[in-house]
Structure formats: structure tokens, C-alpha cells
Write a structure and sequence with these properties.
single chain; two-stranded antiparallel sheet; 2 helices
């Protein structure tokens, strides 16, 4: 089965310290570099999502605009 364009799936193993290694192909495609900060979102039923790294800055911009009142 061919994946839709722009869609990918990888596997990662959780180490003893709870760390995972993001596969090289994923890092290359998504532009993830050493030292980058990634936002992890968790849902007990749906699992973990890692939004694009730019979403982190955008989220804080939205959260803290106009004194953080969301308006």
C-alpha cells in the first residue's frame, strides 16, 4: 500500500531512560536539528502527537498576545 503524498510512518524504540530516537529520515524531512525544542501533545486514547516545530512558537504567540487574555 502506497502512503498518500506527504504522509509518513516510522517506528522508534523507547530506551531505559524513556528516550526515543527520531529516525534520520524523519529528522531530515521535518528539518529537526540537534538542540531543537519539540512540543509533545498527549491524549490517553489517541497517543502522542509532535506538531511541526514552528507550531511551538505560534502557540506561545497566540497564548501571550494582548497580555495572555486570548483576545
Amino acid at each position: 500500500m502506497k502512503a498518500p503524498e506527504g504522509k509518513y510512518a516510522w517506528t522508534a524504540t523507547v530506551g531505559e531512560k524513556g528516550q526515543i530516537v527520531i529516525p534520520k529520515q524523519a529528522r531530515d524531512i521535518l528539518g529537526i536539528k540537534p538542540g531543537d525544542t519539540l512540543l509533545l501533545l498527549g491524549d490517553e486514547k489517541q497517543g502522542i502527537a509532535i506538531p511541526p516545530k514552528g507550531a511551538f512558537a505560534e502557540l506561545f504567540h497566540i497564548a501571550f498576545q494582548n497580555g495572555g487574555d486570548g483576545e
